[in-house]
UniProtKB/TrEMBL annotation:
The chain crosses the membrane at residues 207-228. Keywords: Cell membrane, Disulfide bond, Endoplasmic reticulum, Glycoprotein, Immunoglobulin domain, Lectin, Mannose-binding, Membrane, Receptor, Signal, Transmembrane, Transmembrane helix. This is Basigin. It is a single-pass type I membrane protein. Residues 105-198 form the Ig-like domain. Its main location: membrane. InterPro entries: Ig-like_dom (IPR007110), Ig-like_dom_sf (IPR036179), Ig-like_fold (IPR013783), Ig_sub (IPR003599), Ig_sub2 (IPR003598). GO terms for biological process: axon guidance; dendrite self-avoidance; homophilic cell adhesion via plasma membrane adhesion molecules.
Length: 268
């Protein structure tokens, strides 16, 4: 037997779902061996004809087969083992027992960091799928001078919690007082755990910087176009004058040619 073996025996008396009133004894065993946990159910009723087995967690079917053994087993990862499981023997009537796999909470932050603008509201959230469920949630702000516990009476903050989730609501964010690290702590009968969330608060004027950047780019572009147009105007005027003088030369040449033709006819 491996070291660290933990065996918990739970004896459950169950009545069939058909309501016949008959009680069937199912022996359940939980064996924790390192990274794996083995669940075992044994039916102590030789008269029952077994047609198959089901393992369920809540309403979700984890495993099913059509074996006729009076013992059924299921292996789970220790890190994800917490919860209430059901071993079900399929017979003329369904025979089942519950197997409660308990452990200390595993608290997770919904988001590890949040960003918001001063004056706005923000919600920091943590969740847990612990078994047994978390019975006590505590929020506090972490600082070098000591952690400050937060309650519904803490200035612009209030807390909403359930067995599986807790939320810290912060209203009218203050640029100086509210940024920092916040911890959510959850406790059940087996232990406690916590997660940390970083809150960053930006100046309300920060949202204008992209707009001001676009305005600056437009102004620079307009200035460049204006300078370019200003510099090319003298060249355009010179071109117009040169173009206008050409018809005069052509016209004079045409008049001179006409006069020579007249003189030639008179000479003849």
């Amino acid at each position: 037997m491996a070291t660290g073996l933990l065996v918990v025996l739970v004896l459950a008396l169950l009545g069939s779902e058909s309501g016949s009133g008959a009680e069937n004894k199912i022996l359940t065993t939980i064996t924790d061996d390192g990274s794996k946990t083995l669940l075992t159910c044994t039916l102590n009723d030789s008269s029952a004809e077994i047609l198959g087995h089901h393992w369920k967690k809540g309403d979700r079917v984890l495993h099913e087969d059509s074996l006729t053994d009076s013992t059924m087993k299921y292996t789970i990862d220790t890190d994800e083992r917490m919860g209430r499981y059901f071993c079900i023997f399929l017979s003329d009537t369904e025979l089942r027992a519950s197997v409660d796999v308990k452990g200390s909470p595993k608290i997770k932050a919904v988001k590890k960091s949040e960003h918001a603008t001063e004056g706005e509201s923000v919600v920091l959230a943590c969740k847990s799928e612990s078994f047994p469920p978390v019975t006590d949630w505590v929020w506090y702000k972490m600082s070098d001078g000591g952690d400050q516990v937060l309650t519904n009476n803490s200035q612009n903050k209030f807390v909403l919690s359930s067995e599986t989730k807790t939320e810290l609501h912060i209203q009218n964010l203050d640029l100086e007082a509210d940024p920092g690290k916040y911890a959510c702590n959850g406790t059940n009968a087996e232990g406690t755990d916590q997660a940390v969330i970083t809150l960053r608060v930006r100046n309300r004027l920060a949202a204008l910087w992209p707009f001001l950047g676009i305005v600056a780019e437009v102004l620079v572009l307009v200035t460049i176009i204006f300078i370019y147009e200003k510099r090319r105007k003298p060249d355009e005027v010179l071109d117009d004058e040169d173009t206008g003088s050409a018809p005069l030369k052509s016209s004079g040449h045409h008049v001179n040619n006409k006069g020579e033709n007249v003189r030639q006819r008179n000479a003849n």
